[in-house]
Description:
45% helix, binds guanosine-5'-diphosphate, EC 4.2.1.47, alpha/beta, NAD(P)-bd_dom, GDP_Man_deHydtase, GDP-mannose 4,6-dehydratase, globular, GDP-mannose 4,6-dehydratase activity, Rossmann fold
Amino acid sequence: MTVALVTGITGQDGTFLRQRLLREGVEVHGMVRPGDGLARDLSSAHPEVVLHEVDLSDGPALRGLICEVDPDEVYHLAGVSSVGFSWQEPVLTGLLSGLAAAEIFAAAWQLQEQRGRAVRVVQASSAEIFGQPRVSPQDEQTEIRPVSPYGAAKAYAHHMAHVYRGRGLHVAACILFNHESPLRPPSFVTRKITQAAARIARDGRGELVLGNLDARRDWGWAPDYVDAIVRAARHVVADDFVVATGRTHSVEDFVAAAFSRAGIDDWSAHVSTDPAFVRPVDATEQVGDAAKAHRELGWSPTVDFRTMVARMVDHDRQLLEGEA
Ligand code: GDP
């Protein structure tokens, strides 16, 4: 039986990955932050998932965990997930989204040496490593020049994936562009918008305050991205893969699509902007070229922008109906 260790198992991607691996009959171990309330819910709903409380900043504990679990596959998803937050906590972001990955690669490499069998690792890399890209679309060869603490931490981890790949570890780096679902927390702009659209549609009034409406992102459907991660882990060679839809939309496009789905024609009456939500530096446009993932992993996105927005808005409307 395949044994998988998932860091960040209570997050959006960790949840979809856990569901997928359990369906496949994989023995799933999840690393959770000590005191994580979501871990308690997960362990009562899915006692078959073995949870391990380890702090990502605790190197010896991370190494001990990898030895103890003895995994065939390691999916490293944990870290600071919000670019906005990384500006408030740049050092913590470096620790959790950068250095911890190096600890995991080193421990996986050591385990592989000891037991003589591959440990397949996936690093959840990010489009933020490209910062303000000078080429469009971005692919695996695009220059790495981050412009946020989050991007810099992820860039370090991305480079370390290459370092350990050079040393013989099967470590794939999936350069994930934005990927959303109803499980996204409202600290991300997509869920903030869909929650607001649902609330304003119900109440007939209300306001949504945002930052930069012109920023353009390549937004995809999170379960598709988890599928790419699993394909990358099991691919014959460890490599870098951009995972993206190849289409870009502005924050304003997202607002218009979400409000329209909620039945509100004039979104502009409800939306204002506040510099408090504008980042010190923000990529103007991100759009990925996933041709390599398509060619080598047989991966393609299955959900388009409008369908993704509709699913998120419908979910938030249902949640509000449930409350009522
Ligand atoms: P990110 O691309 O990983 O940082 O994902 P986010 O969903 O946090 O942000 C996507 C884009 O939306 C960025 O360009 C943000 O600057 C922009 N944005 C505009 N208003 C907001 C807001 O109120 N909250 C967030 N999180 N992002 C916003």
